[in-house]
Amino acid sequence: EAERIKREAEERMRQAKRQRQEAAEEAARIARANNISRSELLNLVHRYERYQNNKDISGLLTLYADYVDYFGKSSTSKDSIYSDKVKYYRRWPYVHMTAGDILSIESVSDNPPTKRIKYNITFDVYSSSRRRGVKGSAVNVQVIKKTNGRLKIIYDNQKVTSRRKYR
Predict the structure, then answer these.
(1) HEC secondary structure over the chain
(2) What is the Cβ-side half-sphere exposure of residue 58, based on CA atoms within 13 angstroms?
(3) pLDDT in tens, 99-115
(4) Would you call 32 exposed, middle or buried from its count of C-beta atoms within 10 A (0-12, 13-18, 19+)?
(5) How far apart are CA 111 and CA 35, in angstroms?
(6) Rounded distance between C-alpha atoms, residue 71 and residue 60, angstroms
(7) Phi and psi (nearest 5°) for 69?
């Protein structure tokens, strides 16, 4: 009888150990799934560039969270971003942006996963009706949050580092 009780106790200990290991493996799997990889960030930057160059406002809006710190304005809605992009593309019917070197990627938070990416861009915008254009370079800074497996921009800003007007 004592031997049977001992075997049952050992079996319960083995089951508890297996459950702890399975729980730890599941937690690690979830952490990996929620992390933001460099390739995910680069993919988002390239989609941003493509949507911007194609003047695809609907596509751009899919990259943003519902409310964004947008070019110095906190809690900017997607409707406001839409209006801003419509005005920008009216002013500059030709838009070309090229993402350049990644300057930094920093973790802002682990829960939810949030990263700040800073990268160089070159730009060229032109309006034939106004016979004006501007070429230059800038540094884009975006904060990206991962929620439910999707990356969303929650902060978007830009500092122009050089510009040259042309006709």
Answers:
(1) CHHHHHHHHHHHHHHHHHHHHHHHHHHHHHHHHHCCCHHHHHHHHHHHHHHHHCCCHHHHHHHEEEEEEECCEEEEEHHHHHHHHHHHHHHCCEEEEEEEEEEEEEEEEECCEEEEEEEEEEEEEEECCCCEEEEEEEEEEEEEEEECCEEEEEEEEEEEEEEEEEC
(2) 0
(3) 999 999 999 987 788 99
(4) exposed
(5) 9
(6) 15
(7) -80, 105
C-alpha closest to that of 34 among 97, 137, 112, 109 = 112
pLDDT per residue over 23-60, tens digit each? 777 766 655 556 899 999 999 999 999 999 999 999 99
Residue 59 neighbours by CB distance under 10 Å: 14
Cβ neighbour number for residue 54 with a 10 Å cutoff:
11
From residue 134, alpha-carbon distances to 56, 71, 93, 153, 167 in Å are 21, 19, 12, 26, 9
